């Protein structure tokens, strides 16, 4: 059991998302950095979709109200346990009265705290994901507040401590160094060649007006205003929309089910985690990726994840 | 009549495919979309977790670890080519609306823009039969076709931060109902006491894609009676 002293900018219970109801206009919600959430769960031998706490950018503090095991992945929010630095991506124990602080973002933007068995949460349409707009799932459909208590759904003790920490999976990649894979969308060849060259090569700055619905980019593409109006059509996580002002939007977990702006492309699944970890003011680039490359990159990452899952399961097995 | 052409298959990233049946708002095109939607839902393909219809296209969200886009695309064309549009009997949903000024903050603006009196706006809005093309924007929000073109009014210059639940509104050539309090930029001309979306109810949405929908005017007194009863 964990008490919330401060939720920080935004803390919500999330899982792999609400699936199968988008035809009713019910969005998926779910963890922005789904991969980090899955890694945190795997470290505790939880199912992929066990509810985790998504913590945004820092200023968050919790106190343990009972003994329990946890794991923290995703952004580096300079986490400390009773003042001592806490490594990411390794299980840790909290005893009653111990304080977990996540003061500020050193790297990335969203951290994921998992508990054994997942945190207890309301479920709606088969998912615990908090949908803030519709008021579904999580903690009564709302964000975490001071004084809230979070309960782990199972108690589990490790049989032995992990011998190594999977640091390669723990930290979000630095986006500026490596471009995001963009799978071409219908409007990619409708924008001007100059805009296309800018989109697939130049840097873009993440605007302050970015949230779980989407990341807004500051640099404008001039030919956007002359694109024909698009009919409302389904959108996905990573859809890159181009409104008439030319400032692209990368859609996130709280996107609507359909959208009416022209679509220049969709960020490859393997790079969704890096989209989730970008902070306002940070820069990114795109490069065009085909479906074969995207699938190979995803399969490679999932092989790595499968190894982690097997290794971590052994830490918790009764001997 | 010639057999309709196959839908165009477009990747929507590496975890979804778009089946495009047309590029315009058209009842016959939407009927093909919805027939394909029902057929794909009914086929329960493994690794397919969401099938989402819109005006003229539908998206199939899939697990890229279980499918590559080419194989799934072939399978989807097989499944959706075998169907006849509009299999279920079309259902008509009647929606009570109070068009009184207390629920219709923008009806004067619609009057001014269209040159029609407020009574004429109500008469025309409640006199038409609409088609639910699909649900989107928020849970249970119906995208309706069939608005009298004379009622078309541009959206507000700046959207409201909170549109009350049940608001009935006009945005350009479209009309719709806000099932829950959300931000919104359409012109509000009335309010329904019906709860279009209720997560605790089965079915949770009052209307479904493909339904017909009619509005009928009720008094403020009747509005409150229906609101209390729902």
Shape of chain B: elongated
- End-to-end CA span of chain A: 26 Å
- Biggest interface found: A-B, 41 and 45 residues
Q: DSSP helix count of chain A?
A: 5
Please identify the structural class of chain B as seen in this structure. alpha+beta
Helix content range of chain B: 25-40%
Numbering strands along the chain, what is their spatial order in the largest sheet of chain B? Answer: 1-2-4-3
Q: Could you explain how this protein is built, in words?
A:
The complex is a heterodimer of chains A (319) and B (230). In chain A, the strands form 5 sheets. In chain A, strands 7-6-9-4-1-11 form a 6-stranded antiparallel beta sheet, with no helix packed on it. A 6-stranded mixed beta sheet of chain A has the order 14-17-16-19-12-21. In chain A, strands 2-3-10-5-8 form a 5-stranded antiparallel beta sheet. Chain A is an alpha+beta fold. Chain A folds into 2 domains: 2-170, no CATH class; 175-288, Cyclophilin-like (Cyclophilin, Beta Barrel). The longest helix of chain A is centred in the last third of the chain and has 25 residues, at 291-315. Helix content of chain A is 16%, strand content 29%. Chain B has 230 residues and is of the alpha+beta class. Chain B is built from 5 helices and 13 strands. Chain B has helices at residues 27-43, 69-81, 107-114, 118-127, 220-229, and strands at 8-11, 16-20, 48-53, 57-62, 92-97, 129-135, 142-145, 160-163, 167-171, 174-177, 182-184, 187-191, 212-217. Chain B is elongated and about 55 Å long. The chains are: A alpha+beta (319), B alpha+beta (230). Chain A binds chain B through residues 19-28, 124-125, 133-136, 183-186, 231-236, 238-239, 256-258, 266-269, 291, 294-295, 298-299, 302, and chain B through 10-16, 18, 23-25, 37, 41, 49-59, 61, 64-65, 68-69, 134-141, 143, 180, 182, 197, 199, 204-205, 209.
């Amino acid at each position: 059991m964990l008490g919330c002293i401060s939720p920080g900018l935004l803390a919500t219970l999330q899982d792999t998302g609400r699936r199968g109801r988008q035809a009713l206009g019910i969005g998926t919600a779910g963890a922005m950095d789904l991969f980090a959430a899955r890694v945190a769960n795997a470290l505790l031998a939880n199912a992929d979709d066990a509810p985790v706490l998504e913590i945004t950018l820092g200023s968050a503090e919790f106190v343990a109200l009972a003994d329990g095991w946890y794991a923290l992945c995703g952004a580096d929010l300079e986490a400390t346990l009773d003042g001592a630095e806490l490594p990411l991506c390794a299980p840790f124990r909290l005893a009653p009265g111990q304080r977990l602080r996540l003061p500020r973002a050193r790297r990335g933007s969203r951290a994921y705290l998992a508990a054994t068995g997942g945190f207890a949460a309301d479920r709606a349409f088969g998912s615990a994901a908090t949908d803030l707009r519709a008021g579904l799932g999580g903690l009564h459909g709302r964000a975490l507040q001071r004084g809230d208590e979070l309960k782990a759904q199972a108690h589990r003790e490790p049989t032995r401590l992990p011998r190594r920490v999977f640091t390669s999976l723990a930290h979000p990649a630095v986006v500026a160094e490596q471009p995001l894979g963009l799978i071409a969308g219908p409007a990619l060849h409708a924008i001007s060649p100059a805009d296309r060259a800018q989109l697939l090569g130049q840097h873009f700055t993440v605007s302050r007006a970015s949230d779980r619905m989407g990341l807004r980019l500051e640099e404008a593409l001039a030919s956007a205003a002359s694109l024909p109006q698009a009919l409302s059509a389904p959108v996905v996580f990573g859809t890159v929309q181009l409104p008439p002002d030319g400032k692209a939007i990368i859609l996130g977990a709280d996107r609507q089910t359909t959208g009416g702006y022209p679509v220049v492309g969709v960020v490859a699944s393997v790079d969704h985690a890096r989209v989730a970890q970008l902070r306002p003011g940070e820069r990114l680039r795109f490069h065009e990726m085909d479906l074969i490359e995207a699938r190979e990159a995803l399969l490679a990452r999932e092989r790595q994840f499968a190894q982690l899952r097997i290794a971590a399961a052994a830490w918790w097995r009764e001997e | 009549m010639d057999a309709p052409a196959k839908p165009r298959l477009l990747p929507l990233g590496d975890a979804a495919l778009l089946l495009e049946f047309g590029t315009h708002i058209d009842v016959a095109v939407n009927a093909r979309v919805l027939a394909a939607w029902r057929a794909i839902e009914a086929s329960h393909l493994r690794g397919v977790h969401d099938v989402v219809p819109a005006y003229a296209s539908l998206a199939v969200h899939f697990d890229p670890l279980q499918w590559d886009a080419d194989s799934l695309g072939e399978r989807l064309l097989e499944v959706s080519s075998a169907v006849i549009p509009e299999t279920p009997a079309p259902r008509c949903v009647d929606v009570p609306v109070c068009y009184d000024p207390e629920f219709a903050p923008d009806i004067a603006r619609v009057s001014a823009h269209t040159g029609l009196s407020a009574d004429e706006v109500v008469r025309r809005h409640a006199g038409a039969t609409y088609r639910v093309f699909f649900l989107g924007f928020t849970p249970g929000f119906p995208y309706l076709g069939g608005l009298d073109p004379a009622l078309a009014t541009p959206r507000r210059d700046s959207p409201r931060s909170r549109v009350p639940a049940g608001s009935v509104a006009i945005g350009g050539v479209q009309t719709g109902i806000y099932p829950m309090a959300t931000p919104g930029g359409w012109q509000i001309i009335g309010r329904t006491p019906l709860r279009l979306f209720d997560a605790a109810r089965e079915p949770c949405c009052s209307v479904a894609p493909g339904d017909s929908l009619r509005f009928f005017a009720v008094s403020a007194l009747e509005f409150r009676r229906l609101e209390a009863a729902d």
